[in-house]
Amino acid sequence: MLALAIAACGIVATACGAGCAGPGARLVPAVPVASETLPGERLAYGYDTDGSGRADFREILASDGRIAAIGYDTNEDGRVDEEIDLASVPVEEQRHLVIILDSIPIAIADEVWRHGRLRYFAPPSQVVSPFPVMTDTALTEFFGMAPCPGIESEYFDGRRLTAGYFVYAEGGNTPWRAGVDYGLRPTMHSLAYLDYRPWFHHELGRIQRLFMERYERGEKLTVVYVVGTSAQGARAGRNGHADALVQVDRLCRTLVHATRGRVRVTLLSDHGHNLVASRRLRLGRLLERMGYRVRSSLDRPGDVVLPEFGMVTCVALHTHEPARVAGDVIGVEGVELAAYRDGEDSLVVLSKTGRARIGRTVDGFRYEPWEGDPLELGLVWERLRQEGLVGPAGEVADRVLFEATADHVYPDVVARLWRAFHGLVTHTPDVLLSIEDGWHFGSPLQSTLISLQAAHGSLRASSSNGMGMTMAGALPRVLRLADLRAALCEAGVPLCE
Questions:
Q1: Are residue 217 and residue 253 in the same domain, yes or no?
Q2: What angle do CA 123, 96, 73 make, to 5 degrees?
């Protein structure tokens, strides 16, 4: 009852106008008022940050299009009075801000960068999220805090199904929150999704004020989490994400201006977003029609526990008959892949037209299709075999396989499926489903309230590929989210201290 009350309070508060977002950020203008060519053929853009109608702040570009220096025209006479080379700012004067942006796909971040935004950064890197592609599991991996209790806040703990809204409100499935200095309270997330743009700007305002307070105190690192980017994408699709990244770019520019180039911002997302409108898959009803009993515990043969919490493109099933359940549900419209553990050292993966086995040895992973090619890896394995990279038992080293499948329709799919059943969460599901684009699974209530324009959870690239970029330096072109923190530390972001 309390769980439902929490959800109901959020909805009622919004309907009654009681859940208003606070003040937003004070940002530099979206566009410059002037451009000029400085000595040395350097292009500079001038911004009016004080409302005088004249440029008082300049961003000076390097030949590669990145912003390499900033300048201040304190008397607004048209000449730069102070120029700061960003690369020359002493390390001891730098202050770091890490912003975790929920659900920003690498494809959108890359487009925004190529068209001139986020130019304090090197181009964004592709970051592959673990499967199931969920915020809690992803960020728990990023911070090195795995395992997460469950896939979502509503999970089966071996005895019963948890009260999802209560767990969510209490942060019971979010060990990663210990690693952040600010995030909107979970009880406010429903408001952020229902009235997404004001709440997103509220988050940016809170981040701006928090960082500047900590900057004035000389604190070296601030880590924040933004749910509003997910809300904007979920409600407005591509347009929501495009708007969000323009505002994030303006926030970065504002902080660089305010700190005279002393800030080093890092942006990363927990996963991607498929940017496809979807309808709810009523899997529980279909299972019951097949003769299964959907319950909150597993008491008899034929019982299935089916958490239905968010609006996502993955499903966690609990059953004493995983092979039977997986074989039945793979025929359902909207289910793309099903996987279950077959003993301690083997997984079985099903598609509508095929099945395969995944195994692991000390030397790498094996992929053995015996009907069709459900993960579409046959050509990859053959190429690796021709290059001499397949071992005598058919295994491929983890790193080799990651690089070979980073741009696949299911990126890094073998390792991610293995991890899903081996240590990603404490309460591991018996069957995991990856859902086709155009469908989502989860809460009937949320599906009634929200017309979903983007979702995540599945093994597909659009859902799985998030982004990472930092003012501290360039990152590898593609990497796992579990490896991103170490890569940022190596670049100079003090996340490992």
A1: yes
A2: 80
